[in-house]
Amino acid sequence: MRKPIKGFSKLSKLDKIEWIAATYFTDADSAKQAITQYWNTDQKLQQLHDEFIENTITNYYLPFGVAPNFLINGKLYTIPMAIEESSVVAAASKAAKFWLDRGGFKTEVISTTKIGQVHFMYNGDFDKLRKFFKTVKPKLFEDSQHITKSMKKRGGGILDIKLINKTEALEDYYQLHATFETLDAMGANFINSCLEQFAKTFKSEALHFDDFLEAESHIQIVMSILSNYVPDCLVKVEVSCPVKDLSEDHSIAPHDFAQKFVQAVKIAEIEPYRAVTHNKGIMNGIDAVVLATGNDFRAVEAGVHAYASRQGAYSSLSHAEIVDDVFRFWMEIPLALGTVGGLTNLHPLVKVALEMLDHPTAKELMQIVAAAGLAQNFAALRSLTTTGIQEGHMKMHLMNMLNQQNATAQEKETIVAHFKNNTVTHSAVEAALSNLRMMRNN
Ligand SMILES: CC(C)(COP(=O)([O-])OP(=O)([O-])OC[C@H]1O[C@@H](n2cnc3c(N)ncnc32)[C@H](O)[C@@H]1OP(=O)([O-])[O-])[C@@H](O)C(=O)NCCC(=O)NCCSC(=O)C[C@@](C)(O)CC(=O)[O-]
Ligand SMILES: NC(=O)C1=CN([C@@H]2O[C@H](COP(=O)(O)OP(=O)(O)OC[C@H]3O[C@@H](n4cnc5c(N)ncnc54)[C@H](O)[C@@H]3O)[C@@H](O)[C@H]2O)C=CC1
After folding, report:
1. Ligand 2 atom showing the smallest separation from residue 296 Cα
2. How much is the average pLDDT of 190-203?
3. Is 277 near ligand 1, meaning CB less than 6 Å away?
4. Residue pair 238/313 in contact by the 8 Å Cβ criterion
5. Does a structural domain hold residue 2?
6. What distance in angstroms lies between residue 295's CA and the mean position of ligand 2's atoms?
7. Which of 294, 332, 341, 431 qualifies as a cystine partner to 185, CB 3.0-4.6 A?
8. Picking from 3-17, 177-191, 219-233, 389-403, which range would have the lowest pLDDT averaged per residue?
9. How remote is the CA of residue 194 from the centroid of ligand 2, in Å?
10. Cα dist from 266 to 112, 190, 245, 272, 326, whole Å
């Protein structure tokens, strides 16, 4: 029977590994070897990674790939992508190359407002609370000046604070609902610091507000936190071209392709089962760039999916139409991103990614990330509505399958050549490899 451990966090990295290896693995030495082989030989670099999180025992590598040829508002980018799934980078690259000759991606930042809330409980007369809020509002701004000073100088800060009555949904529940402009920062720390200051001022000032009865003056602050739902931090991305220009090969007529493509998008607009997978395809592109640029993909994921449900049912993030023989494919997506703060100035590969993108502002990064998402969606839908997804995906997945079978470099070369003209499936790869090995042994 395994026992819990006390004080694990205080152990050294080596002692943590020793304990894990001894407790959970039948072959403790191999486990230790598997864990420590990913340590970086540069101790300073390793320490930097160790200190990103807590109880770090090793590094977990993700491939860092690039998708070239992204023409966004007339500027050419090579987009860095950190992702484990085969075919995503290839798909983004292929879509970028396709749209390169058709005007590229047109993007526009619609808004950059972020939101934070102080959630509190008040048992009393709402009119008195409203009056108190009006009186205290200037002091909420004033008391947070030590936090907002530099952000204000840069052109950002607190935009507004509102009192919201939520008692119809939950007894005694109110909010201070604040909006912020955080410029090049994702803003979590700035917003949370402001909110905690609002909460402090709000609670203490309530104690001295003359109109409140004794019970009313004791406001209970439940929590102060930014929201990852950012429907007003929105970017738009679009591609379009005459339908006749959609043709690449002659397997499907451009008009038929455009119609089928639009139908596929319409299905995702009205059918949640399909919409989730459709949007997953978009997030293939978005998450990979968000990760490579050191941004918070959980925050982005949560916000994007909430946005996809904003009309009461989960729906497609992207839309398509054919008007006057012009094909148009677009989406609006909420993205709270930073190009300063967080990991952006710390992780050496994030610095590489940001330099590769020409040191973008947060607004520029929103547009680049959105283009990667739309490109991915275009590539997936083109495959789905023409060849089927498996052909391209399995072609890219071939190397993983060969690695699983411990194929040698020479075997890989022969098998890849074989599958240039044959359909890749797990059983076909296994059969081809075993044939090759049998022939060699005879
Ligand atoms: C996979 C491809 C691109 C093959 O497409 P292909 O036509 O066989 O590729 P190709 O060999 O003719 O090359 C054309 C271009 O594709 C790119 N490309 C091609 N191969 C590579 C490679 N090895 N490394 C880097 N880039 C590559 C590259 O840009 C290349 O141009 P070049 O560089 O030669 O000038 C195509 O079939 C495709 O786009 N498929 C879609 C794949 C996809 O969406 N994958 C995501 C995983 S599936 C999923 O999770 C989501 C999904 C699909 O369920 C979402 C949904 O349902 O909506
Ligand atoms: N719910 C959530 O999403 C939460 C996320 N986080 C984490 O917070 C981190 C991001 O927080 P941030 O506050 O963005 O990072 P941060 O606090 O590390 O850096 C941002 C700071 O950089 C400074 N700055 C310098 N130049 C600037 C410019 N041009 N524009 C704007 N600010 C500039 C400002 O002081 C700003 O507050 C992420 O790692 C995220 O994972 C933390 C708590 C909750």
Report:
1. 41
2. 98
3. yes
4. no
5. no
6. 10
7. 341
8. 389-403
9. 12
10. 28, 40, 22, 11, 17
Share the mean pLDDT of the chain: 96
Helices (H), 183-253: 188-206
Both 264 and 368 in a single domain?
yes
Question: Does 420 participate in catalysis according to the annotation?
Answer: no
* Structure confidence by residue, pLDDT tens digits, 103-151: 999 999 999 999 999 999 999 999 999 999 999 999 999 999 999 999 9
Q: Which of 85, 211, 271, 301 is catalytic?
A: 85
**Lookup result for tokens 């402009």:** 181
Domain containing 24: what range? 8-50
Q: What is the pLDDT of residues 260-305, one digit of tens each?
A: 999 999 999 999 999 999 999 999 999 999 999 999 999 999 999 9
Beta strand 106-121 pairing with 75-82: unpaired
Tell me, yes or no, if 393 is annotated catalytic.
yes
In the chain, the number of structural domains is: 4
* Tokens 């090759």 -> residue: 436
Judgement on whether residues 84 and 120 belong to the same structural domain of the protein:
no
What is the rounded CA–CA span in Å between residue 20 and residue 24?
A: 6
